[in-house]
Amino acid sequence: MNALELDTVLLSPDRSGLDILDQTLLPGEVKVLHLQRLEDIWEAIRVLRVRGAPAIGVCAGYALALAAAQIETENKEEFFRRLGERRDYLASARPTAVNLFWALDRVMAKALSLCDRPLPEIREALFAEAHAIRREDIAISRSIGEIGFSLLRPGCGILTHCNAGTLATAKYGTATAPMYIAREKGWTDLRVYCDETRPLLQGARLTSLEMLSAGLDTTLLCDNAASSLMKSGKVDIIFVGCDRVARNGDAANKIGTSGVAILAKHYGIPFYVCAPSSTIDMSIASGADIPIEKRGAEEVTEMWYKTRMAPEGVGVYNPAFDVTDAELITGIITEKGLCKAPYEEAFRSLGIGK
Length: 354
Ligand code: MRU
Prior knowledge:
Layout: E1 9-11, E2 18-21, E3 32-35, H1 38-46, H2 53-70, H3 76-91, H4 98-113, H5 119-149, E4 157-160, H6 177-184, E5 191-195, H7 202-213, E6 217-221, H8 226-231, E7 237-240, E8 244-246, E9 251-254, H9 257-267, E10 271-274, E11 280-281, H10 298-301, E12 321-324, E13 331-334, E14 337-339, H11 343-349
Parallel strand pairs: 4-5, 4-7, 5-6, 7-10, 8-11, 10-13
Antiparallel strand pairs: 1-2, 2-3, 8-9, 9-12, 13-14
Helix pairs in contact: 2-3, 2-4, 2-5, 3-4, 4-5, 5-6
The protein binds 5-S-methyl-1-O-phosphono-5-thio-D-ribulose.
5-S-methyl-1-O-phosphono-5-thio-D-ribulose binds next to helix 2 and strand 9.
């Protein structure tokens, strides 16, 4: 089974649960989990079986629609109370990717907009809303890809960090969409460089798998080799994804992204953030307001080693994300257009945040 021919997350055909490709096992094992209980879906988001901001949003949308179908009551007041509790529970799975809250709130708003309709109709409409989030995500990634593609030149070298690929979305990815489009257009000479992305290795395990499978010349590097690669002149452009963008353009993405941006500035390499408009959080002024997820020490000291590799008792600093200052970002590519500083003005002129 080819993992990349599978969907990251889908509502199962009988609507009994969600079918989630378990990304923690890739690339070694391809396994689709059929999850019916909300607790199991919460855990899948929490431990990154499904991951990447847009895919988390798609998953959350389906999860809340599924929860609505599972609430056994004909009493509307009770239905909305229990739906709200489930919304809050799912929202507690991870703190940084705003798409999680965005999708939950969108499905919740749909339910509330139909509050005078019969419950079966509301339940049905929530499945339709979740499907729409997924469909739109594919179109959004495609549009980001077209804009990103226009920035590429034949034979250029592209560096990316973490996985903002098809596995992190419903299809195409955001930061990888330009490369998929280049392949579709018959370009064969792009060079893609994947930062391994310590500690969870999304670049090594996922992005390099995606790019190789797309037939691209793909090279993996340790995160700490990025400066040397940039200095060698092999990187012409950088695309990264993001989990939340503040209205001033500060962008939170996988830990290590801000270091890549600082290096890019030093070496004069354009650095682009690829951001569906649902990832832009106009309610927060700057990156200082973005909650950064802290994860367990074992991800650093044990997870990828046969035996623990660091001494017992050592403190571990393991934030899952960092914030790249807007001034380091050459442009933010949304599905509505390419934004340049000053970002708030650029977002508003594209109708983002209205
Ligand atoms: O912790 P993860 O693997 O969910 O982090 C993913 C990233 O940081 C991605 O770059 C981001 O979500 C954008 S995905 C299109």
